[in-house]
Design brief:
This protein is an alpha+beta fold. It contains four helices and seven strands; from the N terminus they run H-H-E-E-E-E-E-H-E-E-H.
Amino acid sequence: MSHIAVKRNRKRQLNEHLKVLRSLTPCFYVKRGDQASIIGGVMEFIKEVQQVLQSLESKKQRKSLSPSPSPSTPKSLHLPAKPSPMGEVGACFNSSLADVEARISGSNVLLKIVCQQIPGQILKIVAVLEKFSFDVLHLNISRMEETVLYSFVIKIGLECQLSLEELATEVQQSFFSEPVFLNEI
C-alpha cells in the first residue's frame, strides 16, 4: 500500500513541476500539454535565453575592449561556413550593432539575429529575405530590455543563389542602410 502512495505522490509532484515549467515558458514554445511537449518547449526556450545571454556578454566584452565604432564603418568578424555542435553548417557575422547567425537545418535555414531594438529593423530584414527569394515560414521575436532576438525559419526559394555567408552579410548590412517604411515594401 505504501508503494502505491509513494508512486502517487511522485506523479503529483511531477505534474506540479510540469505545470510550473509550463507557466514560466512563453506559450508559443509549448504546443501541447503532454509531458514531452512541455519539456521540449522549455528546452528550446532555455537555449534561446542562453544565446541572448551569450550575445549580451560578448557585446559587453567588445564594448569594454574597444572604443565604440562609428555606424558607417561596421566592425565585423566574418567566419567561414562551419559545422555547429549538432553537425549543421552555419555562418556568423558579428558587429557592434548585431550578431547574425545563419545555419542549415534540414531543408530550411535558421536565421538568428541579436541586436538592440531599432524601430523598423525587422522590416529591413524581411525586405532582404524577400529580395533574395526566401520565404519566412516562422518568426519568433524575444525581447529583454533593449535587446531583441529575431529567430527566423526560412525556406530557400528555387531562384536563390546565396550562400550562408552572403545571407549573414546581407542581413548584417541591413543594419547600416536607410530605414524602410511600410509603404516602400
